[in-house]
Specification:
Structural class: alpha+beta
Strand content: 25-35%
Helix content: 25-40%
Radius of gyration: 18 Å
Number of helices: 6
Order of helices and strands: EHHHEEEHHHEEEEEE
Shape: globular
Length: about 240
């Protein structure tokens, strides 16, 4: 699902369902891709089982993506604001929600940055849309809902904001508030379940390839009870 939203240089690995094995099997590096390195395991030693499973499985996806790019699997630890610290020469993004996780990696020479996000295809809780969206975005969502009522556009917008932030932060090292990107969602001519998105940055954007970027571009899809979005930032 995620892979179809990304350009060819990007390697994406995803997993569906939950891993219900006991801790001894789930957290041993010797268990293969499903294991954690000791320094990773220490980060979730006191977390609830659901959090530990998601943390472990999304790293299993990331290590498989590393291997596909010819990079030996290695610990993947959070850096500033929790953003993953990728091996030298790589950039990427991870996401997880109930029953799904994915990692997308690319050589840094091929893309400046990328962000992915997946969410359950369900309405946002009451009051959340107002706190994460701009008035103009809400107007556009109502128009989309009138034409395509089967899509939960509020959840799609939230996912797009998450993908924008994940692509933004590695380039700037700064926080980006929900109100600082104005996202327009476009539907493919054949209609849902997919299309494109454009995020106009309402604060000075990052300088990439000698050019200050004022907008990010991405794609979205709705499949299998999930909403997924991606944003990629090319070098030029």
């Amino acid at each position: 699902m995620i892979e179809e939203l990304l350009p060819d240089p990007v390697v994406a690995v995803e997993a569906y369902g939950a891993d219900e094995r006991d801790d001894a099997g789930l957290y041993s590096v010797e268990a293969g891709h499903a294991g954690l390195y000791p320094e990773e395991a220490a980060l979730v030693a006191h977390a609830v089982p659901k959090r530990r499973r998601e943390f472990t499985l999304v790293r299993a996806c990331a290590r498989r993506a590393m291997e596909k790019l010819g990079v030996p699997p290695q610990p993947l630890l959070p850096g500033e604001r929790g953003a993953p610290r990728w091996p030298a020469g790589l950039t990427g993004s991870m996401t997880h929600c109930d029953g799904y996780c994915a990692a997308a990696l690319v050589r840094a020479a091929d893309l400046a940055s990328l962000g992915i996000d997946a969410e359950p295809h369900a309405p946002l809780p009451d009051g959340v849309l107002e706190s994460v969206s701009l008035p103009g975005e809400r107007v556009r969502l109502r128009e989309l809902a009138g034409r395509h009522p089967a899509v939960h556009w509020d959840r799609l917008l939230f996912s797009a904001k998450e993908s924008v932030y994940k692509a933004w932060f590695p380039l700037t090292g700064k926080w980006l508030d929900f109100s600082e990107a104005d996202i327009a969602i476009h539907v493919d001519p054949e209609g849902p379940p997919g299309g494109t998105l454009r995020a106009e940055l309402l604060v000075p954007g990052p300088v990439v390839g000698g050019v200050r970027r004022g907008a990010f571009e991405g794609r979205w899809t709705v499949q299998g009870g999930l909403v997924a979005t991606s944003v990629t930032v090319p070098h030029a």
